[in-house]
Design goal:
Largest sheet: 5 strands, antiparallel
Order of helices and strands: HEEEHEEEHHHHEEEEHHHHHH
Helix content: 40-55%
Number of domains: 2
Radius of gyration: 21 Å
CATH topology of the largest domain: Aminoglycoside 3'-phosphotransferase, Chain: A, domain 2
CATH superfamily of the largest domain: Aminoglycoside phosphotransferase (APH), C-terminal lobe
């Protein structure tokens, strides 16, 4: 097997020779070579995405796709890049999940702090939604079933007792809240009177009470916990053009970690939906998630606990606007999240969970 020596950091380095070596190293290309690669790229907040149209020599197996997607993580997000590479190299191979886009290579270099992943390009059969519009109920139901399938597979999985970078420890859990709390004064000063005294007081209470003792115990003991996506929202799913024929896919695994599964659901619904739509469908969707968990084999987890967990996860959403603001994201991203998370906190009566 050949050894890759270069981890690329720009589009110009994506050559037919480099792709041939990469595919051969990962044993995807047993013979032949890439002879031409057309590249179309765009940038996201954390990455450069390159769509590749490939041509091969005549001896390449017909099973090798002619369309792939290369994701190059920006250097300032090197930790997330390593984390996603770990997911595709360590976690994904054990799952055999139809909800994951096939990965041909995932590499992180400790020397250069660079990373990339090479995936199937399924843009001909799937799409990402327009960011300003909510998804339809049908697609929301697909998301719920997808997450239930993934969470059930990893529910108290023995592999999660290993010491991954994302494994919760007492130190990491207790370090999280102070790190967010230390950002809050500057965030609060920036907002000025746009953050009311009532909401400032709420943040102070959450800082004091988080995490709830019962949640802390579960995280440390890995009880009723699972592998979570960590940044689940509508844009991190690929939706089938033909619902009856294709699955939904979940992408962007840069923030996966071990936690309660409802964090992913609250991230989608309680953090990103406006009240009318959320109240109309929220509880029914969480109920569907719970039923699917049971069908996929989860035991000793009651509906009451699931709903309690979802409300607890809605409290956690309050931390997101502060974090997103500190990394320089525009207000068009974090301000709506702040409003929606606060309104969900009220609607779900989360105050009583802190009181307990």
């Amino acid at each position: 097997m050949r050894i890759m020596v270069n981890v690329i950091d720009n589009i110009a380095q994506i050559t037919p020779e480099w792709l041939t070596e990469l595919l051969a190293e990962k044993e995807n290309l047993s013979q032949g070579k890439v002879i031409w690669a057309q590249k179309r790229s765009y940038t996201t907040f954390k990455s450069t995405i390159v769509h590749l149209d490939l041509e091969y020599s005549v001896d390449v197996p017909k099973s090798i796709p002619t369309k792939m997607l290369l994701k190059i993580t920006r250097p300032e997000y090197r930790e997330q890049g390593k984390h996603e590479s770990d997911f595709y190299n360590i976690i994904a191979p054990t799952m055999n999940s139809s909800y994951l886009v096939h990965c041909y290579a995932a590499t992180y270099s400790f020397v250069s702090d660079r990373s990339y992943i090479l995936l199937d390009d399924i843009s001909r059969t799937h799409f990402q939604p327009e960011s300003s519009l909510p998804i339809t109920r049908l697609y929301a139901e697909q998301i719920v079933n997808c997450l239930a399938h993934l969470h059930a597979y990893w529910w108290e999985h023995p592999m999660l007792t290993k010491d991954f970078d994302s494994s919760p420890s007492l130190e990491s859990i207790k370090r999280f809240v102070p790190s967010i709390e230390s950002m809050f004064p500057e965030f609060s000063d920036f907002l000025g009177d746009r953050l009311s005294p009532t909401r400032r007081a709420l943040y102070e209470k959450v800082f004091t009470c988080w995490p709830p003792p019962s949640l802390l115990k579960r995280l440390l003991e890995r009880t009723a916990t699972t592998l979570t996506h960590g940044d689940a929202y509508e844009g991190n799913f690929l939706y089938p053009n033909k619902v009856a024929q294709d699955n939904i896919y979940i992408i962007d695994w840069q923030d996966w970690h071990i936690n309660i599964g409802t964090n992913d659901l609250a991230s989608i619904f309680a953090k990103n939906w406006y009240p009318e739509r959320r109240v109309l469908m929220e509880k029914e969707l969480i109920r569907s998630y719970y039923i699917a968990l049971m069908e996929y084999g989860v035991k000793q987890y009651s509906w009451d606990q699931c709903w309690h967990d979802y409300r607890t996860s809605a409290i956690f959403n309050l931390f997101w606007p502060i974090f997103i603001w500190t990394i320089g994201a525009p207000a068009s991203i974090w301000w709506p999240i702040l409003e929606k998370a606060m309104l969900a906190y009220q609607d779900l009566e989360c105050e009583e969970l802190l009181a307990g």
